[in-house]
Amino acid sequence: MQSSFSKVEAISWTGTQLKLLDQQVLPSQIHYVLCSTAEDVAKAIQQMVVRGAPAIGISAAYGAVLAATEGQSISSLMAMLDMLSAARPTAVNLRWAIERMRKLTNEHVSSSAEEQVTASLKNKLMAEAVAIHQEDVSANQIMGQYGKKAILASSSAGHKLSVMTHCNAGALATGGYGTALGVIRALAETNELDKVWVNETRPWLQGARLTAWELTQENIPFVVGVDGAAAYHMTTNKIDWVIVGADRITANGDTANKIGTYGLALLAHHHGCKFMVVAPSSTVDMSLASGEEIEIECRGRNELIMLGDKMLAPENTSVSNPVFDVTPASLINMIVTERGVIENPTQAKMQQLFC
Ligand SMILES: CSC[C@@H](O)[C@@H](O)C(=O)COP(=O)(O)O
């Protein structure tokens, strides 16, 4: 199967602006948002024009380039880096990308003693943003092959695989190709895949809107189900693997990902499906000992009780809308990164690969 993932260009740099494929309105509209300032980028991240852990890190890096207006003081550039870094709390990739931009700025300042942003600093920040973007695409391609190899090594020959995924961890959520969807693409490319069970992913519908859209572009067979049908689908169909992305993986292998992932891991454990997390090393946060320390983003009530302009619940309904949960390492069979694959993750195995 010919891969057409390059058709999905969710993030691009026009030379002066950051161009984002608007994920709020996909798949019914193909609409691009142009960001001319760092504030525009922070707003696009908060409003989820761009979303997915690696994609928001890459966007923030380009946001830092927009923040670096020549002649402006270094202290106001640093304040804008803080603003970008705070746009969403859970995915560590955002903070990781901004830290790379901050480090470069500090190095430049200490070697040149400049107090203003110069053309030379701006060029360095631009090169770093492009590097962050390109490194992500190549990490995804490597993880696609590692994940596929690990799955095939643990499956009996001659049977095409059924996998389940949650949220969108595809080209839209990354620099290109995808993490969980990268492994799924790699399986499809060599005809190892029967079909993908896509959970719709309430409330924002990343599965039904975005993953289904990407799989349609690639002609990969899939079925969308409501999140509550996952257990039913696992009992009525042979689902070999649940494959998901991650927003933050802590030093013991605990993993934050889209709300509902923890429940899926419990279901997978009960039904004998294997559970794989696919994420680049930029998603690993060795500074946190366990998932208990991860800040979980809670978003507004309207995401949950409104569908377009239609109310789904009585006006004054109180709502809880955590948008991520934490899957304990004990429920994860494999963590796939571009540095290698960890089976049955533990703190010692994480340390070996990431320290
Ligand atoms: C490669 S993307 C991995 C995760 O970021 C993804 O699974 C996810 O949870 C995204 O959440 P979102 O709220 O859509 O940004």
Automatic annotation (TrEMBL):
State which pathway it belongs to: Amino-acid biosynthesis; L-methionine biosynthesis via salvage pathway; L-methionine from S-methyl-5-thio-alpha-D-ribose 1-phosphate: step 1/6
What residues does substrate bind to?
A: 51-53, 88, 206, 257-258
What are the catalytic residues? 247
**Reactions that this protein is recorded to catalyse:** 5-(methylsulfanyl)-alpha-D-ribose 1-phosphate = 5-(methylsulfanyl)-D-ribulose 1-phosphate
One matching Pfam family is IF-2B
Instruction: Site Transition state stabilizer: list residues.
Output: 167
Q: Which UniProt keywords apply?
A: Amino-acid biosynthesis, Isomerase, Methionine biosynthesis
- What Enzyme Commission number(s) appear in the record? 5.3.1.23
MF (Gene Ontology): S-methyl-5-thioribose-1-phosphate isomerase activity
- Role, per record: Catalyzes the interconversion of methylthioribose-1-phosphate (MTR-1-P) into methylthioribulose-1-phosphate (MTRu-1-P).
Query: Family, per the entry?
Result: Belongs to the EIF-2B alpha/beta/delta subunits family. MtnA subfamily.
Protein name according to UniProt: Methylthioribose-1-phosphate isomerase
